[in-house]
Amino acid sequence: MNSxxxxxxxxxxxxxxxVIIIAVLVGLFGFILFHGLQHVSxxxxxxxxxxxxxxxxxxxxxxxxxYVLFITMLITIPLGVGGGIYMxxxxxxxxxxxxxxxxxxxxxxxPSIVIGMFGLLMFVTLTGWGYTILGGALALTVFNLPVMVxxxxxxxRTVPRELKEASLALGITHWHTxxxxxxPSAFPVILTxxxxxxxxVFGEAAALLFTAGLSTPxxxxxxxxxxxxxxxxxxxxxxxxxxxxxxxxxxQGLIPDVKDVSNGxxxxxxxxxxxFNLLARWIGSLIHKKITATK
Length: 295
Prior knowledge:
Layout: H1 3-36, H2 42-46, H3 59-90, H4 95-108, H5 112-126, H6 133-157, H7 161-169, H8 174-203, H9 206-211, H10 242-252, H11 258-292
Helix pairs in contact: 1-11, 3-6, 3-8, 4-6, 5-6, 6-8, 7-8, 8-11, 10-11
């Protein structure tokens, strides 16, 4: 077999793999949207869920999903990027650094149910908070932190060293070089890691099941006082997210339209993830152009 034939075979194999991946993705999305969009309506999105009667919606679960995501990423991104900066720029090669990296890899491979049990012990029982949004966000932070650290570290290491050396040669401090040269250059990769981590938050159910709870109190969306018991912004209240709601409806649901609610919720969850990813990438591209002064 000559090199030209081998090249054509390899190209065909990789094209086939790409087609299979796209077909699986399109088929999965198509199946979920085909069975779910017919049950999605404005009423379905703006009415609270029901435990007994048909016709309930997902208003509170949809809001909880985005709110838990916001709180989680508010904690995860600074810690993850800070950890990546330390591992890439400050950590000296040695046993301590290798031990830290091993701990990060072990934590990244932890099953979500184990993180949920840890969160139940730490953020529910020991703190005395009970089931709360904050407890769920902290558990998901433990779940996503290794991903953000590794992505941030790799992104910073892939920045050409000539940029760093040129900045240091001008007399700029190490931290200022990181802030003005390395982070802007690594921003697109870090953004990709943040989007991947946020996608895990959207679809996570096991960890939130033990930390954020299976119920949502009656909320008053006109009350934006975060210390009020009925405020949707209160981080010390239970919060059933959309992924947990889908699991709960399918396993414990007593309503007559269980299948309709489940299919509609799944379609909304998929579309929410898709819209969030597109918006995050668009906003990220605007930020990247601004901080790097590119058009």
